[in-house]
């Protein structure tokens, strides 16, 4: 009979691992008011729980409000609640730019990237800094209108108030879930059951998906509960929960998925197999088609199995369209370096949300584009705060075939850098929402990029004369199909007349929160008569809109499907369905 001691050793090790896992997911304390209380008495040593509201809003992808006010802006998430527990539409809350699915159905909608993991559904985000780093025990989100948009909560190891930046920045998912429909718009305190992490944090990130909402979601405040010392359960009160082991799988999906990019892409020594089974009998093209359904981390893992699949997984044809946005927390210079040899034929690249806090350097980004930029047609760089003038110069030099460029919320790019974009005469889509582009640079872009079909200038507050910009569009951009002028402060009926006369192919026009437009000048009537192809028109918050304007739109714009006249004297949003 073989000895049982090895089996006992294995069981002991398994029991020890379960105890350690249980300690990491210890019972969390709860608190409903802003005061310190003792945490669960089973936790050793005893900690005092700290409750704190967000001190500062560090970053966000979009907001409904203006860059020069506090109404409906993300900055309202800092501090104590302004509205909660009241329900309703309040200007003192934080509101993102979009809701529902109609943004994906309008003329300016972009085609989605294939291979986006089904678990990644985030559309917007906001990052909040708190005073004290703690081990989180609970996160309370105070939602005051149309709740249910939050789909993921993350914690960061970096302290935004530390004088010494860490060598490595880690993000851990505290909670995530697919979008769900919430019955009713009433206020609520959302407190999901969060996972414990092994580092203290004072930087929390909320990611949202508003596609199931009937109206804009409004957030009032975020409350972080936590303890200064990492809680450890007493062994005699610990009960092993086998479900805890499964949580490691979620960590691997988010954490290790991109680690494989950095470590496993470089593996060249693979085990020799005498045969590859049925794969030897399949045509090369068929294997490529099968692998095209795998996400990037899955390609990394599969590449380790044998030389045949390694060859297929590293084929540049697998990386014609590549979105790294779902893995934003793990992408860095090393990731881009290992991807270079596989992306020599890349045409669509999504680096939105990536590279912040030093993860991607200017030199690392430049090296990648010098190798992989020649075939690029579409480049998504939304919220890329590592971008500077050098990066834009490299883009314009290394991407001669570029047709679509998204710089949405890249608010760290200096104004003079946008002059380089004028060199890309093939551009058909340019998104400059919430950037510091100035009038001189924009006039140069419009003059040389006459192929533009989609242009977003929403919340571009450094443009002095939008009438001049509209006149240049009318003269040079005859192919324009969609134009976003959300919250431009100084366009008048003169600019609208020039625009309507020169850009008669327009199907989508956003003039929301443009206070200098007055119906009495006939500008809206002129729009309706000159732009018969309009499918979407936003006149949000223009209190001069009158019945005559609506009648002209109904009579002349027979393709109109979306008309936003919210916060006007007519007080309604109309949707036309053909």
What does this protein structure show overall?
The protein has 578 residues and is α/β, with parallel strands linked by helices. The chain is 24% helix and 19% strand. Helix 9 (439-448) links the parallel strand 17 and strand 18 (454-456). Helix 7 runs parallel beside helix 8 (389-398), helix 9 (439-448) runs parallel beside helix 10 (466-476) and helix 11 (493-502) runs parallel beside helix 12 (523-530). It is globular, with a radius of gyration of 27 Å. The model is unreliable at 1-16, 18-44, 234-258 and 571-578 (pLDDT under 50).
Output the keywords.
about 575 residues, alpha/beta, eleven-stranded mixed β-sheet, ten-stranded antiparallel β-sheet, 23 strands, globular, disordered C terminus, ubl conjugation pathway, FBXL15_LRR, leucine-rich repeat
What is the element layout, followed by pairings?
Layout: H1 5-24, E1 37-38, E2 43-44, E3 48-53, E4 56-60, E5 94-95, E6 124-145, E7 150-156, E8 171-176, E9 188-190, E10 201-208, E11 218-227, E12 232-233, H2 243-263, H3 284-291, H4 296-302, H5 307-313, E13 321-323, H6 333-339, E14 348-350, H7 362-372, E15 378-380, H8 389-398, E16 404-406, E17 429-431, H9 439-448, E18 454-456, H10 466-476, E19 482-484, H11 493-502, E20 508-510, H12 523-530, E21 536-538, H13 547-556, E22 562-565, E23 572-575
Helix pairs in contact: 2-4, 2-6, 6-7, 7-8, 9-10, 10-11, 11-12, 12-13
